[in-house]
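User: These chains co-purify. Model them together.
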Amino acid sequence: MLGLGLPFAVIASTTLKRGALMSALCCACALVGFFLARLLGRHVSDTLRVLLVSLGAVCAVGGIVQSGVFSRVLIDGLGAYVPLAAANMILVSIAVDRQEQPFSAALRGVCFSCIGFTLAMCLLSVIRELLSLHTIWDRPVQFSAVPISGAALPCFGFILLGFFAAFGRTLGRAHLRILIRRTLRAKREEKEEGIG
Amino acid sequence: MNDLSAVFSALAAGIILQNVVLARAFFSEDPNRFSRTYRGTLRLGLITAAVAVLATVFAVALRQLFAQALLWAPARWAAYFCCVAVSFLLLRPLFARLLNGRHGVSDKGLLYAAFNGAVYGIVLLSMANYTSPLLAIVYALGCSIGLTAAQLLIHAGSERISLSAVPRPFAGLPILLIYIGILSLAIYGLVGHQLPT
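Assistant: Joint model of the two components:
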């Protein structure tokens, strides 16, 4: 859920291609930031660590853009949102605030955050693209409803994300309820076996 | 007269269009994470504004000095980012004195509030939208005012929402996101449909 609070990613993800690009950039920044924060360790102050990690993420974004992995048209279309992927404090905090954890557990946590973020962004952008343009990945799809141009607006992204967050929370609660029920049942059975 | 009108339009575009309508500043960094009072949020907003404006001044100076080198996008991004970092480091002692641990703002809160994507975004947009140094700085000032206003709006909204009976799955972040979306939609409706996104 922490990764969902990224406004610029929500605003920029109006199509699946854009959403995928933003997710890829954000994940790259989080991973580069994580390794950089680990490398710096406790040798520098918290402030300097955050500044250096963010600068490393900016350089990573620059490297990805220059590598030519993504099309120039797509990158130019996103404009200022591309470098902004690197300066998000939510990503930086994911990378920096795991200093106390063992390396493997911290890396797993960062990877899970990245996967969750990518899934949420792709789902959000697919819905917005389908509603506003009647396409998915720039390919037209049969969709009987009238195109809703407003689906590409930032406000629609925020509202949709709010519903996603509520749905995710409901699923999380249901999962927790099932776990608690299972634990209680196992305890009850143990107790009954003990009495028997 | 034309210059004055250009300055005013840059200021208005910064305050209204970038922040409230395009929702760029909303949820930039949830101010409630760092401050639970209006005064604290306002101070954090002013701190953010100070960093953004000073960083834009540095960025304008850099563009004047190294115009050719900054044509390469990654170099430009890194240079503007360094401007934000230097501004933050320069102003940090002043902020520490201004807040002095009051309003529940920690050192980490100060760092995340004054050094974030919204500030960097203001510098990037100011430099991209305006070639005139004065207009770029005025635009950054407008964006900063809009950012502070947006943070106060979120603070006020979340305070009222926390006192309301919200369905359990929507409590907290989901209802705040929906509130931000509706607020952005309402102001978008007032401004009109011909907007860049």
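The first strand of chain A starts at residue 135 and ends at 136.
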